[in-house]
Amino acid sequence: MTYLTWSDDLGKRVRTGDWTDQAVSTVTKINEAIREGRSEVAAQLIDYFMEEAKVVQFIYDTWTPGFLAWLTQAGYGEAELAAAVEDLRVELAMLDGTPFDGDALWLELGAQAGRLTHAVRAELIEADQALEDVDAIRVAWRRLHDRWADFLSGIMKLVADRFGEAALEDAYRHALEPYIRERYMVYDLRHKDYEDTVFRNLYTSFEAMRSHLVGPDRMGDIECTEHDDRWVFQFDPCGSGGRQVRGVDVEDSPPDPQRAVRFGVTSEAYDWSWNSKGVCYYCAHCCFTLEMLPAERWGHPVRRVDPPLFPDDTIGENPKPCTWTVYKTLDAIPEDTYTRIGRTKPEIP
Hints:
The protein is of the alpha+beta class. About 50% of the residues lie in helices and about 10% in strands. It has 12 helices and 6 strands. β3 (about 225) and β4 (about 230-235) form a beta hairpin. The longest helix is centred in the middle third of the chain and has 37 residues, at about 125-165. About 40% of the residues are buried.
């Protein structure tokens, strides 16, 4: 039985369960609790679903002003930039035609989830209706989440179109810095041993990717396999960049590879794109946050990421999933994890 508990290691609430159980979506766990009549657990898990989603909402609220500030400082005219951003909001309008407004939609989603949490907790709602309302919250978050990812990608495309693709490195470094300090400096190996970071690394990987609603049905289910020296995560697809390079729209429309082109994929190889072409601009943030910037600061990546490349890995009947690898020791991290981001594996004491 899944429930919530407090983690002193993470300083926050977490789901119980081993790593196999953590790979199951929180939506599934909510539905199980509702069907089994565990109303208080179900209510807490609905609230926790929003806590997971907040991880991603925080990313978008942090990165967006960072990229816009970079564009302004780089010389993108203020009025022209405002018009371009408004065009993006209109392009990513909701089903009723309302221009996209991520923060307003987040507050609406919170109110929707809060009402359901209280109704379930007080047993003021039948199970069938509660299950239907849980899925409505999942769909509302998916629509908000997917538009956020496309909105940010559209802003990155403004950078590349005006200043050249290589300028994305400087823009990313500027926009990511507050996020790096808040989320990734806790992995700084100058202050703690690698083994002491592994639990956090694994748990936050599951939590974040559940909130991205990964998986074929966009439920948040993750494939994870443990090996002697590592854990391997697969997202089929990842709900953000993986969805983009497959050309899947925010609604239930057929795949359109031109969506990947619209929101940008690398035409050249860079250290920040794992020295590969065909990496979507949005996916590049994983290279910065999980590999390149940690390696620059304390010598080693946090996780290894193997993204699907457009178009070879993304078009056809069996598109490639995105893969993350968390290694159990520094020794286990292979040399090519370093060389593909332009570095050499340091000596391990």
